[in-house]
Write a structure and sequence with these properties.
This protein is of the alpha+beta class and 114 residues long. The chain has one domain (4-25, 39-101): Glycoprotein, Type 4 Pilin (2-Layer Sandwich), CATH 3.30.700.20. Helices cover 33% and strands 19% of the residues. It has a three-stranded antiparallel sheet with strand order 2-1-3, covered by helices on one side. The radius of gyration is 16 Å and the shape is globular. The termini are far apart. The model has no long low-confidence stretch (mean pLDDT 94).
Amino acid sequence: MLSDDHRKVLLQTARAAVACRLQRIELELPETPAEPLAAPSGAFVTLRVEGELRGCIGVIEAVRPLIEMVAGCAASAATADPRFPPITLEELPRVRFEISVLSPPRRLRARRRS
């Protein structure tokens, strides 16, 4: 479970990741993030400007620490979603970030049809 402080860090990280990608500079993440942020997790990042969708990218598999996953998905949502032109630095202050942290997948039983 993420605390309000963890959520705040993820939102700040997502915004910083987009700003860095747009400016073509490297994002520096904490070397040892808090435990929930260091644990591998899947995530989706959705970007909206004035309520309109401007990008959404996610990864289902928990292959990287959550903080890295959010940074990567945010930067990709802003610049690599093929449905939209890249976000601009001028737009960035108006971008609303939505982050969905995925729980680990679990096997479901299929219901047999009669």
